[in-house]
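Q: Can I see a sequence and its folded structure?
A: Here is a first one.
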Amino acid sequence: MTKVYLINDMLLFEPEMRRIGPLAGYPERSVSLHGPVSECLLQLLEHNTQVLTQRFLFSAVWERQGAVVTTNALYQTIASIRKALKTAGLADDIIKTLPKEGFKSVASLRVGDRDEFLMPHDPPSVAIVTEKIADIIEPCAQTPVVKQRSSIAYWLAGAMFIFSCGVFFMTLNDDASVFTNYHKMGNIGGCEVYSSWQDIDKSRSTFDALSLRYPVTCKPGMVAYLTLNHAQHGISVITCDRNPKDGEANCNSIFYRQQYHEDK
């Protein structure tokens, strides 16, 4: 039996399968969700009506997986949750943003087994879902974090990460790409992957290992850049939906804080 959530008597959310869809026609009309979107939605629903702080969501979704992301990544994840709910057929905005406080769910919620909700019944009429949203950038902690913990090392790593991202985006308009000296690792799942390392075999094994720690979303037609950053004692992966020199390119970055050594 699979535990699911019935939202506003209209949508079924199945965390185990990372999908959400209208009660009528589930799961054929369901929308697929990527890890952070599914897990954050689960956390919001498990703490329905409670305010979850940004600090809590950072810790629960990314840091426990060894990744450090910016506030913008959190807001993009919340926006993706809203888009998924709307795409699945829910008109009401059940995810609320409270300035300087955090986020909370205000859904009408029922929790039970999937088979229980999918038994023959007369569900409310819903629009047919014709759009599939792409996989979007892990389980969350059990209780909200009220007091923010910080350390000099943590904030230094965050500042260095933001600085490196800034340098990356500023160089996109230069004639010489910042990735000119990167080495092509090959095609992985349709995605062209490049590495700052010369050892292609080690680069591929490292890329696979990082993907197990925290999924790297890189679909056919996209490009990914694997960078060893000695200053940050970690590895960053930048994915773009097209060549980053294209002014319309949309890029995302993940920073893995664990230290790696190229000469080992």
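Q: Show me another, different protein.
A: A second, unrelated one:
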Amino acid sequence: MAKKSNLRFQTANELSVIHASYVVGTGARCTDQATEEKLAPPTSQINTRLASSMIDVSRFWSALFAEVAAGNPIRVSCEAALSAAGCSELQIESTAAALCSQLDDCRIALSGRFPKLQEQLKLRAGPLRDRWQTYGPGLLIESAKLIWHSAPPEQWWPENVDCLLVQPFRGGDGGFDSGSKRIWIEAMLTDPDPVVTEVIRLAYLTTQVAIGQHLEQSLGPGGLQSDQPEGFGSGTLRQSLLPWDLGTVPIVLKAAKNLGLHTQHDLPVQKTIELWRLGDGEVASVVASWWQQWGDRDVAMPVSLKALSQAMKPLAERRQASRLHDNA
């Protein structure tokens, strides 16, 4: 039996600042209006400077998040993010200096909103860590069995996965970086949904790290890379064009059901995909239909994922045609 990953929970004060700034700066839905109001001025200034220099705003925020999550200093993270977002080499140093000043304004603003953020995160860490220690190992074991039809490889799970806990600003959120074996999650005190719990989300994110590690071992460090980041705020690119991220949603939900963590007759696949922001209602519907057809078949996961990829093509083609029509 494959050994389970040990999740090493860490509070992430600095990453919480970047997470909040990312949410507000990219216009994502924020559940904390007071934080949104405090961060709107400095993040708007950052976006204006980026746009005026023809720098990809969204890519900058995503790369910045990944760099800070990796533990790099803000100045180093800014320069790396600017480079990833298309900033001219001649402008990186001066632009990074200005952005660091504005990011410091973000930190000061958030400190005013949460003067004891570090202490709050420590308190929030306890309940989630306790629930994981109770249910998490079993979820990992069961998920691996379902992916590998009861015969997972010995080295399937990374020995350790760092779990960075950030202040909630979206009512539940998380992401992963398989290359550095880390995940992050908003430290929610209660589950946003009584069936799709945060412990299941943790199992899902840890599974994505295991998949990324396995694909890198199978395909090599270069792999088949797409142009989409792995997860929210992650800078590591996917190693496969197969939709592992969507296909493993019903896997972890079924693992949770097998362990008695929920009693839903029909797995809440659509609800989960939308709740975790992995896709909209149309994407969720395709995945749910695919699982009904393929969930009980005794076939290798890549084979069933090819079927999911094919099922997703008409949706992608319709959306591409709609974009071309809108731009005509």
